[in-house]
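Worked problem 6 (solution included).
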Amino acid sequence: MLEYDFGPGFVANDMSGVIDRQPPRLVRVIPTYVPRVNADGNEMSGVPSVLHQAPLGTYLGWNLTAAGFARLVHAKRLAARVSVAGAATATRNVTLVAPS
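Solution. The predicted structure is:
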């Protein structure tokens, strides 16, 4: 970042006054500080985040699950749909059993 001097009639704090010097004089270079990062690109300063140590999940389009988990979830969703439809028509008698 750079600090400029626009002349004595210009107040830089609130950007008011009159610019007396154009182009402005360069006063100094203000150092910019950024946190150090590790090999993964995560910031190392401060208290480490739990999500960096044990990520919540993955950004892949698919995840591995335990065997039978998807069938159990699908069965519960299907049962919810059937119970709603069955309440409306009262003609279906379906019994779902979760896989063992």
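Discussion: The beta strands are 2-5, 10-11, 16-17, 25-29.
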